């Protein structure tokens, strides 16, 4: 047995199911070793950002780490954007990064770089293996570091010679147990007392608080006088529909969020960090609420749903009455709009499906419509690095084989990781990619208007319009092996979604907006 076989055996024994890989020469021993651990399924992607985004989506749904395998520093760097999002989502991920042979790296070959520094930008745990006999234990340590109640990213750097060196033991690796979440009772009492004292409280709920149990408890609390509930702006995973409480998201732009939060005496953080503006705008505070106004009910990684339930019980909040499911469909012959896309998609969702949302064009209109849809789960872009929507949906589909996944995707950000289509086609996954094709970076045009440019001049348009030539989405999909169609009206979108539901494989729907 060699070091590479020890690594893959340790990964499989630890409970890692998938290895999302884009290997190179320094990972060849690991590629060869995959045959020794059939429980570890290798999945090839054409770009490292697909690997890391897929590991994020898998981890959010499966609740445990996947493994990525990338080639040296440059290969790992290609995946950093989606690891940034995964870090903000507290997704557990184990990265294995191949390095030059330990006796070769000091010669500074062309692909050498400071992998430790690169990995450190997105990882809570980084280690370079030093002996072939210890690589299995290193892998299990990475798994332990990643699989916490508050998930983390762990990166193991593996020199090529340690992969191929012979080891004298097979390694005894035990399965790892899932982490246990807890909450602090004194925090429950502090928030309960604030309400008993007559203070007006606004809650920002995230993490496990947006599970079914967490939302039902939030729905109970929302009926108490002086209480208002919001979900965090971009949740890692939230349940929607099926009669669950409809928690609006805290607005994205800071001046709107501040105006809401200022109406309350205290801001209660339930599974979220301190609310901070996404960007700094002159004259607007970076903090959305002063620190002295913050109360913490539960931290990220705590049993947030349990904390909300305990608070509702302590205050004897009434039972939550489920909301009805009745989505008003738009006129079929009317042209598509962001609002009608949200309504049509929400009405078409099957029970317990998954929706990966990236982009402002149709994202919030879908969110407003989805409260009355069938029960489903939504994944959003937690870190703001675009290009995660389709890879996250890809990983989510592998986490629950056979379950339908929808990727509601803006056209500009889709191009960052469009190679995901090939991986989805290769695995023949039931993923429906809906491209909101408005052929522009709408968010940048909105920011230009906020900056004071009321009329967008030709120079600004050159950097915000995706035209001349327009992207041919059907040709792209065909090239990657994914069937596709273009729709212009609400009725056409309804038919396209019905056709997608009748087929087990993937499809891409270009929505002309």
Automatic annotation (TrEMBL):
The keyword NADP does not apply. Keywords: Thiamine pyrophosphate. The keyword Cell inner membrane does not apply. GO terms for biological process: small molecule metabolic process. It comes from the Bacteria. Residues 1-106 form the Thiamine pyrophosphate enzyme N-terminal TPP-binding domain. Signal peptide: none annotated. GO terms for molecular function: acetolactate synthase activity; flavin adenine dinucleotide binding; thiamine pyrophosphate binding. Pfam families: TPP_enzyme_C, TPP_enzyme_N. Residues 374-510 form the Thiamine pyrophosphate enzyme TPP-binding domain. Belongs to the TPP enzyme family. This is Acetolactate synthase large subunit. It comes from Pseudomonas cedrina subsp. cedrina. The lineage of its organism: Bacteria, Pseudomonadati, Pseudomonadota, Gammaproteobacteria, Pseudomonadales.
